[in-house]
Specification:
9 strands, 11 helices, binds adenosine monophosphate, globular, 40% helix, Pantoate--beta-alanine Ligase, Chain: A,domain 2, alpha/beta
């Protein structure tokens, strides 16, 4: 496994290896877990060469303390990447990516960016768009893999690729969960014991909401979820929304042949957890 920190050297290496080769790319912010590894394993199956980036992107954090406290486990990350036969790791510094200008480009994702995470984390998706576009320029992947855990992000990246005609195929990957249902996340290690124990309530509630959505209208289901969290002593609901998968617009009535998803953000103490479920 080769590890690079400099843009020039990683570009050189990829172009020397690339000839006629498919490149699968998995961008991450490190603190890797089995969810990340499931993306990398899929990329390994579908490509000749797999590149993983580890970069905690400053421009996508709206809160400085979240950026500062983001878990960093680089030695363990490299071990895990070796264990799944990752070919190439790119782990640049912020300066390498942004020089002295740590700023986002401004994007128009045709409204996808104004919903849910975009409403609650101002500037987040401009930061995501900026780094992913930059990494695509550097890595020139054939396919790039994103988790449905961040479903809004996945849709936004697909939109960016389509709008700009970028020569990469975006592959969405299933949410990987702990056995108790909690969606794996780098942030889970920061949960207190009590909050970790409480957190599976999120997915349990999503599953119940899915059942209710079969027989009730969206407004009632949203209200039901809000009430469930009001009763919970440890978890604080930030939002639960039912939205159209393609437009991410919140709905009040169901239409035939449309796909819907429930999206949730919850505070467990000061750790913010997100999840979603296909309805
Ligand atoms: P992150 O390091 O959190 O930026 O995540 C890097 C990639 O891994 C993103 O495409 C995430 O959606 C994906 N990912 C993170 N957690 C999971 C999970 N539990 N299941 C599937 N994909 C995930």
């Amino acid at each position: 496994m080769l590890v690079f920190a400099k843009i020039k050297s990683v570009k050189q290496k990829i172009s020397s290896l690339k000839k006629g080769t498919s490149v699968g790319f998995v961008p991450t912010m490190g603190a890797l877990h089995k969810g990340h590894l499931s993306l990398i394993k899929k990329a390994k199956k579908e490509n000749d060469l797999v590149v993983v980036s580890i970069f905690v992107n400053p421009t996508q954090f709206d809160k400085k303390e979240d950026l500062v406290n983001y878990p960093k486990t680089i030695d363990n990350d490299l071990e895990l990447l070796k264990s799944v036969s990752c070919d190439l790791v790119f782990m640049p510094s912020a300066e390498e990516i942004y020089s002295k200008n740590i700023k986002s480009e401004i994007f128009d994702f045709e409204g996808l960016e104004h919903q849910m995470e975009g409403k609650h984390r101002v500037g987040h998706f401009d930061g995501v768009g900026t780094i992913v576009k930059r990494l695509f320029e550097i890595v020139t992947p054939t396919k790039s893999y994103f988790g449905e855990k961040d479903f809004q992000q996945l849709q936004i990246i697909k939109k960016m690729v389509k709008k700009n005609n970028l020569p990469v195929e975006i592959i969405g990957c299933d949410i990987y969960r702990e056995t108790d249902g909690l969606a794996m996340s780098s942030r889970n290690v920061r949960l207190t014991k009590e909050h970790r124990k409480a957190a599976p309530f999120i997915f349990k509630t999503l599953k119940e909401a899915k059942l209710k959505f079969g027989i009730e209208n969206a407004v009632n289901v949203v209200q039901w979820v809000q009430n469930e969290f009001k009763k919970h002593p440890l978890l604080e609901l930030e939002y639960f929304e039912i939205a159209n998968e393609a437009t991410l617009q919140t709905i009040s009535t169901k239409e035939l042949k449309q796909k819907y998803r429930g999206f949730i953000a919850v505070f467990a103490g000061n750790i913010r957890l997100i999840d979603n479920i296909s309805l």
